[in-house]
Design a protein that fits this description.
alpha/beta, Rossmann fold, seven-stranded mixed β-sheet, four-stranded antiparallel β-sheet, 17 strands, disordered C terminus
């Protein structure tokens, strides 16, 4: 390379650097003049005009999604926040992460001024999350608990080709809403809600939530495999039939009645259903309510994708809804009026199958009872309790599952004897599980269960014999009474004083 050529390149580099320095100095000067001599109120206006000037020469369209629509939360903003949390690229420099107390998952979100690129139907969409401070005394962000006069205005901006405006409005945004709901459902911690009687008149606080940590699943509950498969298929069919329910004009709900002796696993089955569907549970104690109005209020306050449970329905409500019982459901207030004091059968039926049953979507209603024969037939028909599930005594199949869960074994030389005894012992899965927990050694545990089963069979035989004895005594008393009545009738026919014979 000649010396003249090298000198020319050096001169060119100096010229470029000088030019860049001049431009930077000019920019700094313009910025200083802009801030020092132009009123602050005009800053945003000028930036707005400049941005519009450049936008007029661009084929890009920017859509702004504010956090609030007036004073109301903007659902699209919340959905975008959740949706974009799963779209963060490896090139992103900053992100936000949080974990609410007692929740099991981390929440990941964009940090302010970070950009995310999303591709949908082959089209590119660029997102940015913007936050700016305002000192307006007329604006207050309800989520900013620490702010007084200064508040933060937050929004998403999505930029895309102008030709895709209809695609965004008709397809892309609905897709974001749907995906965000799915992500929230999958990541949420299941909760069980109980009624807070002290806050019955606050719609958002009348249910008190607690994390549901029940480990029951369909793999662990002691139930016949055919019955489990039937329940699983019914649940899967239910959650997939939103459009079908709307088409036929029915509320999107499903009713289950679990009946059987205590200890047969009704509560465990409910927990397994909640864990399988990832649905919250609302545990409703009807005896704590003062009337049908409170029942309706609680229904409105329950969320979609939930299971409403009323345990021991035969013990918690007067199931003979006649006029006399309706009258006792009200009491006088200082002689000026009547106030409802309990839930009635008609109120409950309207709640599960009337107009109020359509106040939410994708809900499951479960009643449990130990005595199905005590229930009013009106409560049992399809549309109210669509599926009746008999929770029976432990079977050999159920025992094998419990042995696998509790002892970690699938077979043993004592299994045959245990299975023969279980067939006739009438023991609940809870009783079998309790025996398996008593010993650490497998063989000792199984032998303890055998002794328990023999004892249980003997007790059952004694109870059966006692019932036969009572029946015979009742029969003898009835026979004696019939004879006495015959004697009395005979004496009356003969006009003899009672106790005298002819």
């Amino acid at each position: 390379m000649s010396s003249s050529s090298a000198e020319s390149k050096m001169a060119l580099a100096k010229t470029v650097l000088s030019t860049v320095g001049s431009v930077a100095a000019t920019a700094m000067l313009v910025r200083s003049i802009f801030h020092d001599y132009i009123p602050r109120e005009l800053h945003e206006y000028l930036f707005f005009r400049l941005r519009n000037m450049f936008t007029n020469f661009s084929n890009q369209l920017t859509m702004v999604i504010d956090e609030f629509d007036g004073l109301v939360n903007n659902e699209i903003y919340e959905a975008a926040q959740t949706y974009l949390g799963s779209k963060l690229s490896p090139n992103i420099h900053r992100l936000k992460i949080s974990k609410p107390e007692k929740e099991k998952n981390f929440n990941i979100a964009m940090e302010r001024n970070e950009e995310v690129t999303d591709v949908y139907n082959g089209q590119t969409f660029k997102w940015i999350w913007l936050c700016r401070q305002t000192e307006s005394k007329h604006f207050y962000n309800s989520r900013d608990m620490n702010s007084t006069l200064k508040s933060e205005i937050r929004s998403f901006e999505v930029t895309f080709h102008k030709k895709n405006k209809d695609l965004v409005l008709n397809s892309y945004l609905p897709h974001i809403m749907k995906e965000a709901k799915l992500q929230k459902h999958v990541n949420k911690t299941i909760k069980i809600h109980t009624v807070d009687c002290e806050r019955m008149y606050n719609l958002h606080e009348m249910w008190k939530p607690v994390n549901l940590n029940h480990p029951a699943t369909f793999e662990t509950i002691a139930m016949e495999s055919d019955q489990k498969d039937m329940i699983l298929k019914d649940l899967e069919r239910f959650v997939k039939r939103k459009d079908y329910y709307r088409k036929v004009g029915k509320a999107w709900k499903r009713g289950y009645l679990l009946f059987g002796p205590p200890g047969t696993g009704k509560s465990s089955l409910i927990a397994a259903m909640a864990n399988y569907l990832n649905f919250d549970i609302y545990d409703l104690e009807l005896t704590s309510l003062r009337g049908n109005m409170e029942l309706r209020r609680l229904l409105v306050a329950t969320a979609n994708k939930s299971i409403l449970v009323v345990e021991d329905i035969d013990c918690t409500i007067d199931l003979q809804d006649n006029l006399a019982n309706r009258a006792t459901a009200f009491r006088s207030i200082n002689g000026f009026g009547m106030q409802e004091t309990k839930v009635t059968l008609s109120g409950l039926l309207n709640f599960i199958d009337g107009l109020w049953s359509s106040c939410g979507d994708e809900r499951i209603i479960i009643f449990t009872t130990n005595h199905i024969e005590k229930l009013d037939p009106a409560l049992l028909r399809p549309g109210r309790m669509d599926m009746h599930i008999h929770m029976a005594y432990c079977t050999p199949c159920g025992f094998k599952l419990l042995a696998t869960n509790y002892l970690g074994i699938k077979d043993h030389k004592l299994f045959k004897e245990i299975e023969e005894l279980i067939d006739i012992a009438n023991v609940t899965p809870a009783e079998v599980a309790e025996q398996l927990l008593k010993e650490d050694e497998v063989e000792n545990s199984l032998k303890g269960l055998i002794n328990f089963l023999y004892k249980k069979i003997k007790e059952n035989e004694e109870v059966k014999a006692k019932k036969v004895e009572i029946t015979q005594v009742e029969s003898d008393d009835e026979k004696k009474e019939n004879v006495e009545n015959e004697i009395k009738e005979k004496e009356e026919e003969m006009d003899l004083p009672n106790g005298e014979s002819s």
